[in-house]
């Protein structure tokens, strides 16, 4: 009798464990199903004149509305290094600035989470700010699959003016070449049509005689 009771208890315990694991698996499935992908968008690179303000633009798409759980983190990877340093965090309407010296008293929040904007401003940009900036956004239950990366180039005003001049010259040259090619093609087409019409008229006259 005792053996039968013991066997029955083992069967009941085993069935209870299976039921518990089934419930846990179902709950995990529901939580996983609610998690959706949050996409972050940033420009690939920007150019900022030395000593001026630079805006690091970062926006994101999320099917869920933003709220107190939404957070924004910015990290910086200096040129020539393989690791990034966190220097800015935004959560629950509060700004938290790290102790990284290049960004002390320089960074301000320029975003609006209601508009899916996580941008920041950096004042008085210097050569030390050359590098890659990483924008990471969390909007539970959404998760970021790939944070945004911005390559920032600090340029001197003289170099920027030279760069802009070359851009303008290159653009004008491309437009002139394009118009010249288009006009040449039009003239060739008109010439061929006119030449073909003359040949056709000559052939008609020869047949008539």
TrEMBL record:
Protein's UniProt name: Myelin protein zero-like protein 1 isoform X3
Gene giving rise to this polypeptide: Mpzl1
Any one GO cellular component localisation term in the record: cell surface
Domain Ig-like: start-end pairs: 33-139
Glycoprotein as UniProt keyword: yes
Keywords annotated in UniProt: Disulfide bond, Glycoprotein, Immunoglobulin domain, Membrane, Signal, Transmembrane, Transmembrane helix
Family: Belongs to the myelin P0 protein family.
Keyword Transmembrane carried by entry: yes
Chief place of localization: membrane
Topological relation to the membrane, as annotated: Single-pass type I membrane protein
Short name of any one Pfam family annotated for the protein: V-set
Source taxon at top rank: Eukaryota
